[in-house]
Amino acid sequence: MSDALTADALPPDTRSLGAGRVAAPIPRPPGTPEPVQAADPLRREIAATAARLIADGGLDYGTAKRRAVQSLFDGDALPRGAMPDNMEVDAALREHLELFDDAHAARVARMRRVALALMQELSDYDSYLTGAVWKGIVAEHAPIHIQLFHDDVKDIEIRLLNDGIDFEVGEIAHFRGDSGRRDVEALMMVWRGEPVMLSLYPQDDLRGALRGTPAERGDASGVARLLAATPGELG
Fold first, then answer.
1. CB-side exposure of 219: number of CA atoms within 13 Å?
2. Dmax over Cα atoms in the chain, in whole Å?
3. Is the pLDDT of residue 23 over 60?
4. Distance of CA 104 to the CA centre of its chain
5. Which of 122, 123, 114 is nearest to 195 (CA)?
6. Which residues contact 185 (CB under 8 A, 6 or more apart)?
7. Angle at 44 between CA 41 and CA 49, to 5 degrees
8. What integer is the mean pLDDT of 43-72?
9. Distance CA 147, CA 153 (A)
10. Between 94 and 23, where is the model more confident?
11. 11 has a pLDDT exceeding 70
12. Cα–Cα distance between 232 and 235 in angstroms, integer?
């Protein structure tokens, strides 16, 4: 993974944070494409509405897009090609948080610090940060999502219990998104005051995780490089 970091297109020091402070761009992981605003006005409107629902209600992308369509079309059929993809929602969410959430930069920094500390605690396993905290688009309700690759799920659970960490067990769709793939176990917990989700994968799945777009996840060294360049080290 390259050490180079990608900054947002917005120039630094363009947005006030109150009390005279300004926000520098939050660095994106290496290999992350530039934010893609939907070219079609209708797609932009759906993406912007979905972004607000994610930021305000903690919805997942799929649910937010469906509810955005329901609110905008009131049961009418969605025109073909009007549904924005997740990258377009990412761009709308990033813009929304930059404009309306003064705590965003500090939240990204804080949660990246906590994520790195937890990954170091779990160094016996192959751990990768993914999702909102890795991308640097962290709405208030977003958890730290760490993927663990290890063949013995019970070993991970016992390790957490021995460390005095309470968790709830659930499931999450496999990151590949293949219809034939089973959901994987996910452990939900709070660690150092932050919501955390650990999704547990067999060791063999790591090879597939590292193919394609490396910007989707990063190991501890990648998180450390991101954190070193992350503004908002305000506590």
1. 12
2. 53
3. no
4. 13
5. 114
6. 153, 169, 170, 171, 199, 200
7. 130
8. 94
9. 12
10. 94
11. no
12. 8
